[in-house]
Write a structure and sequence with these properties.
D-amino Acid Aminotransferase, Chain A, domain 1, five-stranded mixed β-sheet, 21 strands, 19% strand
């Protein structure tokens, strides 16, 4: 018996640790490694054990806690936090209609009569709570840990669907309304395509993309992400509605985004009809949904049913199972990317999944292969992440050949034979030979010519020919090309050569940030290139910057700083930049005099934190108009910290420890006005 008890205790502890790890990956890292279904199996097992063996119950168990998405204290992207007036709980969920019947029986037993439900599509996004005061959005707060969340008001206002001001009439002086911030499929595909081109880690699904976007410091970047909102839960101290459905109709009349796909169901049978309908129709929606939420419509009955520690008793979620297929792993290819990143790609026996034939699926990196415990010739489960991107989610161990071996990750580049490297802080292996590795070279040439970079009229076929002929072996060679050389390419005539050379000539006028992006420095995307160009102003300043100086720039972390330092330390990079300078490319930031009102803050580095009477973007604009520079983190180089209401405590503490001056909004405005 003792041994059995010890085994149970060990299993409970293992489950709690495993679930906590998956919660971290889901809420904080925004990179889940298992499906919702697999996660829910773990939760259900833990709940069953804790119920059967109450002696092992714990207040810190993930079965009684809401997963937390709070920004970690001291992080560069830290947000101010706020306590929820009403706890923001999660929903219980099920994949089983029998459990819905049991849910209905419990509700009816307490109600004493048949119960009316409201069925709503469960949007797969990031939970948000909005508070409106006298018709204006006061604040927007993430779920956080259920008790408190991050204030992301400016980011929410950058979405096109959340209004700053309500319309109509009849709304209370103050109320709260909750819902989901989500990313439509089109925006998700666009974002991941861009990240793939820049060899940045892809978002696993739209929910993670939405959650990650909400934590960006720059609300203009959030706006570019194309987030939208659907709201579904009205809360107020004023008891003016009898039913949940009435509250939703009122919210809609005030201009708030409410789902058009809801239904009042007068029986559990009508609920089932709604579920069956949307298990099919959801695949036609332009945004992600993973189930249906079933809520008691009568608000008085909701109050009577109450809450558990983690979820309301008057609502539950029915989740659709992700479509998956079982197929055989045939082989694994190892592809070389533009920055030398090695990506393993699984070749599969063709299998039909969500209406398309799937033959290949990315395995991302060695860590993912090991996490899945993949062996050669395994039978693997394939799902479409968000119904779009094929991914391997598990292995059918019962079909594994006992003689099968784990795949051998290559030690050298499959393209050029150079020994691969792997930084301890990264999951990927890299080929360091960016000078002469053919795949990297051709990919870097194509990147340089892309529309978002130098906008030179060259596609894959042109790059392939130029490389094979030996005419272009680095990006500076484009500016040495002649008409005679181009006419040696297959299918080229005078006119096409002329147009190509003109696009090269036109590229010389591209602004500094585009040139910087076009260099193809690992981890430097479009946004980061703009930040670096704005901060350092010239390529020489950037090339001579120390790691600590680079860390003063928004969007620059330790890994990126090391990558930039490593790039500019190389002799080959120095030679290429020198040749590009000689070709006339722009390697300095051009100040726009019209936008500059004064030089009051010239050479001043300012960090802002907290909430202001105007938006943070307007504050940043004021700083720039007076020649100051914005920074996201406090350091010895900071001129002063501009602190609004509820500033980040770590920034205040660091500013005080370094003896950096702290100004409030009033003091800052007086400084500007007296100029």
């Amino acid at each position: 018996m003792k041994k059995n008890t010890e085994d149970i205790a060990a299993r409970i502890e293992q489950l709690r640790n495993t679930i906590d790890e998956h919660n971290r990956r889901y809420y904080i890292d925004n990179q889940p490694v298992i499906s919702d279904f697999e996660f829910d199996i773990l939760i259900n097992e833990l709940q069953t054990l804790e119920k059967k063996y109450p002696g092992f119950k714990s207040d810190t168990s993930p079965t009684v806690r809401v997963g937390s998405d709070l920004s970690s204290s001291g992080a560069q992207n830290e947000f101010s936090q706020k306590l929820h007036k009403y706890p923001m709980l999660s929903l219980s969920n099920t994949y089983d209609k029998e459990e819905l019947i049991a849910f209905n029986e419990r509700v009816v037993k307490i109600a004493g009569v048949d119960v009316e439900y409201v069925c709503e599509l469960k949007i797969d996004g990031s939970a948000i709570s909005l508070t409106y005061h006298k018709g204006e959005l006061k604040d927007a707060v993430t779920r956080g840990d259920g008790e408190k969340g991050d204030i992301v008001t400016e980011n929410i206002l950058s979405t096109r669907s959340v209004p700053r001001f309500l319309k109509g009439y009849g709304y209370p002086d103050e109320f709260e309304i909750r819902g989901e911030i989500f990313m439509p499929w089109s925006a998700f595909d666009r974002l991941n395509k861009s990240r793939e081109e820049n060899e940045e880690q892809l978002f696993a699904n739209p929910r993670n993309a939405a959650a990650g976007s909400l934590k960006l410091l720059d609300s203009t970047l959030v706006k570019e992400r194309g987030l939208e909102a659907i709201l579904y839960h009205y809360i107020s101290d004023e008891n003016r509605f009898s039913n949940h459905s009435e509250a939703l109709e009122a919210a809609k009349s005030w201009g708030l985004p409410v789902s058009g796909y809801t239904k009042i169901c007068k029986s559990i049978e009508e609920v089932f009809n709604f579920l069956d309908l949307w298990d099919i129709e959801r695949k036609k929606l332009p945004y992600p949904t993973d189930g249906v939420v079933i809520k008691v419509n009568n608000l008085q009955l909701q109050s009577k049913l109450g809450y558990t520690a983690k979820s309301p008793r008057w609502a539950t979620a029915y989740k659709f199972k992700a479509e998956r297929a079982l197929t055989k792993l045939v082989s694994i290819d190892y592809q070389v990317g533009r920055t030398g990143a090695i990506t393993p790609v699984a070749n599969l026996e063709p299998v039909l999944l969500s209406g398309t034939i799937v033959k290949r699926a990315s395995l991302h990196n060695l860590d993912q292969i090991e996490l899945l415990d993949i062996h050669m010739n395994d039978y693997v489960y394939v799902e479409k992440g968000g119904e779009i991107i094929p991914k391997i989610t598990g292995v059918e161990l019962s079909k594994r050949d006992i003689t099968s071996q784990k795949p051998l990750f290559p030690e050298s580049c499959p393209d050029c034979g150079t020994t691969l490297t792997r930084d301890e802080s990264e999951a990927r292996h890299y080929c360091p030979n960016f000078i002469s590795c053919p795949t990297q070279l051709k990919a870097s040439l194509l990147h340089f010519c892309s529309r978002k970079a130098m906008n030179i009229l060259a596609g894959d076929a042109t790059i392939e020919q130029l490389y094979n002929k030996g005419f272009v072996r680095n990006i500076s060679d484009f500016y040495k090309l002649t008409t005679e050389e181009l006419l040696q390419l297959d299918g080229w005539k005078e006119r096409s050569a002329e147009r190509f050379l003109k696009s090269i000539s036109d590229s010389v006028s591209a602004p500094f940030h585009k040139v910087l992006f076009s260099l193809g420095i690992r981890h430097v995307g479009e946004t980061t290139a703009k930040s670096l160009a704005s901060h350092f102003e010239t390529i020489d300043n950037l090339a001579n910057a120390s790691k600590d100086e680079l860390l003063q720039v928004d969007d620059v972390g330790a890994k990126l700083a090391e990558s930039i330092c490593g790039y500019f330390a190389g002799d080959a990079s120095k030679k290429i930049i020198l040749e590009l300078k000689e070709a006339g490319l722009q390697f300095s930031q051009q100040r726009i005099a019209a936008n500059t009102k004064s030089e009051l803050l010239l050479n001043k580095i300012i960090v802002i934190s907290g909430n202001f009477s105007v938006s943070r973007d307007e504050i940043k604009k004021l700083i720039e108009e007076h020649s100051g520079k914005n920074s996201g983190s406090v350091s010895s180089k900071t001129s002063f910290l501009l602190a609004g209401e509820e500033p980040g405590p770590s920034k205040i503490q660091k500013a005080k420890s370094l003896g950096i001056k702290i100004l409030n909004e009033e003091e800052f405005m007086k400084l500007i006005e007296n100029n």
